[in-house]
């Protein structure tokens, strides 16, 4: 956190932070649509007018860093033909496919983020929180963060990119087979069952990680509250966390699930892209048929919609409920589901009202970190076995 007394006065009486603020504000104004204000409705804008830049986010430096990290593997392969084959890990997809995979994921993130925000700005009637909730008394962005908070998030974005890059490629070289090779296809039925199971395991890890981040005071104060500065989430808010929040979730979520219930190559691709859509939708500020990933899983028992996570953000520290990342099963099972502003996309559980019953942890001695310890033990056993 930047402390006020640490700021040094510049030659013309402006603080260094003021200079940064002006720079960030001008960048945000140019590169990221509707950071501070909603669009002028009297202009009768069409949906295509609301698309923000597909390539650049609010920060040019972070965009360049992302491009460098995406290009680095291709550069490594291009330097020498022989290096390219040396980089391949036996039993995994090729290094080239892995590099293309991360490039595709990044593109999907950008395009789907722009799509969801265009939906949000185009259809006022579909917004989960009514527009009056966005009327801000102080200088804050549409999600409720002030300049100082945005600068801190900007720093965490950089560390998120670097730590995820190291984790992603570290897993490739340290765990052969983690990124599935094309030589071990599964039958359609097996793919379907494994996908369901993998997602529920992933959701289980992420549920308890998220619940710990709320219920363990240290984790809330130093890690997770940063993500909750956004009280009116938009999809651009999805990965704006403390870098360790993203890192921790990647390990106990995707990583543990792929080790315990490995998916084959096509299902792995589908699952990761599906998860990107699902994560962005949860923060989209709309809860409706435009949310493709949530609509696809509505048939599942206890399925949730984006308005559940929206309500989770609206409550800030008081929002110790609705922790599930996908599916919603664990919130219903462990008594932490709340329906929030269900509006026209209410689920079965929202309508029957049972979702509002909150339950405490099973016992005083129980820590929400314990299920994660159990999951880690299972992963260790699997890693020392046949994986
Ligand atoms: Zn949270
Ligand atoms: Zn969130």
UniProtKB/TrEMBL annotation:
The transmembrane residues are: 54-75
InterPro entries named among the record's database cross-references: Fatty_acid_hydroxylase (IPR006694), Sterol_Desaturase_Related (IPR050307)
Q: Name a GO CC annotation attached to this entry.
A: membrane
Compartments (UniProt record): Membrane
Keyword set, alphabetical order: Membrane, Transmembrane, Transmembrane helix
What PANTHER family does the record point to? Answer: STEROL DESATURASE
Protein known as: Fatty acid hydroxylase superfamily
Give the species this sequence originates from. Answer: Seminavis robusta
What lineage is on file? Eukaryota, Sar, Stramenopiles, Ochrophyta, Bacillariophyta
């Amino acid at each position: 956190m930047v402390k006020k007394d640490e700021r040094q006065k510049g030659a013309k009486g402006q603080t260094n932070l003021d200079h940064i603020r002006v720079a960030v504000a001008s960048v945000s104004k140019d590169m990221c649509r509707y950071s501070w204000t909603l669009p002028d409705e009297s202009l009768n804008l069409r949906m295509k007018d609301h698309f923000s830049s597909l390539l650049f986010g609010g920060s040019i430096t972070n965009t360049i860093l992302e491009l460098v990290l995406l290009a680095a593997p291709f550069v490594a392969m291009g330097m020498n033909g022989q290096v390219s084959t040396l980089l391949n890990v036996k039993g995994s997809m090729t290094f080239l496919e892995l590099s293309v995979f991360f490039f595709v994921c990044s593109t999907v993130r950008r395009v789907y983020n722009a799509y969801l925000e265009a939906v949000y700005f185009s259809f006022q009637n579909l917004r989960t929180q009514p527009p009056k909730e966005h009327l801000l008394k102080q200088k804050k962005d549409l999600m409720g963060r002030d300049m100082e908070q945005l600068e801190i998030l900007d720093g965490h974005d950089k560390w998120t990119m670097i730590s995820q890059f190291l984790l992603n490629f570290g897993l490739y070289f340290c765990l052969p087979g983690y990124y599935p090779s094309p030589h071990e296809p599964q039958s359609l039925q097996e793919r379907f069952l494994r996908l369901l199971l993998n997602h529920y395991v992933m959701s289980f890890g992420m549920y308890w990680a998220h619940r710990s981040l709320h219920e363990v005071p240290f984790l809330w104060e130093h890690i997770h509250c940063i993500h909750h500065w956004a009280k009116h989430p938009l999809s651009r808010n999805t990965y704006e966390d403390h870098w360790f929040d993203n890192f921790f979730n990647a390990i106990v979520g995707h990583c543990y699930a792929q080790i315990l219930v490995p998916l084959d190559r096509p299902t792995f691709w589908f699952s990761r892209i599906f998860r990107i859509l699902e994560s962005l939708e949860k923060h989209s500020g709309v809860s409706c048929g435009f949310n493709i990933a949530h609509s696809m899983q509505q048939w599942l028992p206890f399925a949730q919609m984006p308005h559940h996570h929206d309500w989770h953000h609206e409550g800030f520290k008081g929002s110790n409920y609705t922790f599930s990342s996908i599916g919603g099963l664990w919130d219903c099972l462990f008594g932490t589901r709340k329906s929030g502003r269900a509006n026209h996309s209410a689920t079965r559980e929202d309508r029957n009202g049972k979702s509002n019953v909150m339950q405490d942890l099973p016992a005083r001695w129980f820590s929400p970190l314990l299920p994660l310890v159990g999951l880690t033990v299972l992963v260790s056993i699997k890693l020392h076995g046949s994986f």
